[in-house]
Amino acid sequence: MLVLLTGGTGGAKLVQGFNLEARPEDLVIICNTADDFVFHGLHISPDLDTITYTMAGLSDAAKGWGIRDDTFVVLDWLGRLGGESWFKLGDRDLATHIMRSNLLREGLTLSQITERIRKRLGIESIILPMSDDRVETRIETPNGEISFQDYFVRGRWRDEVHRITFTGVEKCRPAPGVLDSIREASAVILCPSNPITSIGPILTVPGIRSALRETRARIIAVSPIIRGMPYSGPAHKFMAAMGIEVSAFGVASAYRDFLTLILIALEDSELMRKIEGLGIQTVTTSIRLESLDDRRRVARELLALL
Ligand code: FO1
Fold first, then answer.
1. Ligand 1: does its nearest atom lie under 6 Å from the Cβ of 159?
2. Neighbour count for residue 145 (Cβ, 10 Å)
3. Cα separation values, 35 from 137, 152, 162, Å
4. pTM over 0.85, yes/no
5. Which of 45, 172, 220, 225 falls between 20 and 30 A from 287, CA-CA?
6. Is residue 158 part of a domain?
């Protein structure tokens, strides 16, 4: 069994490669849920949905989120009526949020709902939220503390980042199946997601980090940083705010207590010795995941390393 830890659109690119290269019944995908928020009264789980749509072959490759060829009629009308429309919920995507919100009100857990949706969409791999309990990433900026989506989507990650906190994380429990799948995995892959706001919350859920330290699985990360910059998104701002070097070495250091191996960019080969000094094996390859071919190739390379 192969466990993938992911969040955001960077991680979803590698998940797409594994979806096409690995046996679906071998994959368990654990998703960040600290980006979840409420919009127009609906519970939105962007990272779970990005993975669900990716695994179902429905994802929008250009945007990296949402459903391919979706329309935005409802959102446009909400805007016309004076409602908020900065978070682009497509018409088809809205069905997911309406369904999820209703089932949560009926008392189902996020993992039960995720399971129901993935089965309806014909996905054979398991998709698990990191927790069924509410955890919320909060970003402290010079203008005050805001939610992750306010910072990322509404503010287009322009603000300076002073501090990042995960409200509710101390009291949350890992969702059913999360710890067991890490313990029983033959390998765990940390996708090239933002190490602070995508993988970070997953690692902060009580029990997950120690399960990673204790598992016999090989644990491999793919660096989201190439030559000191993330290949998408604001990971550099978050890493700097946390005092972590913005490099593949910084990523490896953040995972050093459990990581077996890290895949870094060919352009970063001069970091190999420094990373290996942490006791982490290092392999260089082309890790830009722009095309579907790249995503499949990197997944194949990882499967070969295992
Ligand atoms: N990201 C954006 O940059 N702009 C959006 O309007 C937006 C809408 C959206 C709707 C549904 C969904 O599942 C994801 C959406 N995302 C959007 C992506 C998402 O906010 C981020 O990729 C993650 O939260 C980052 O981890």
1. no
2. 14
3. 6, 10, 18
4. yes
5. 45
6. no
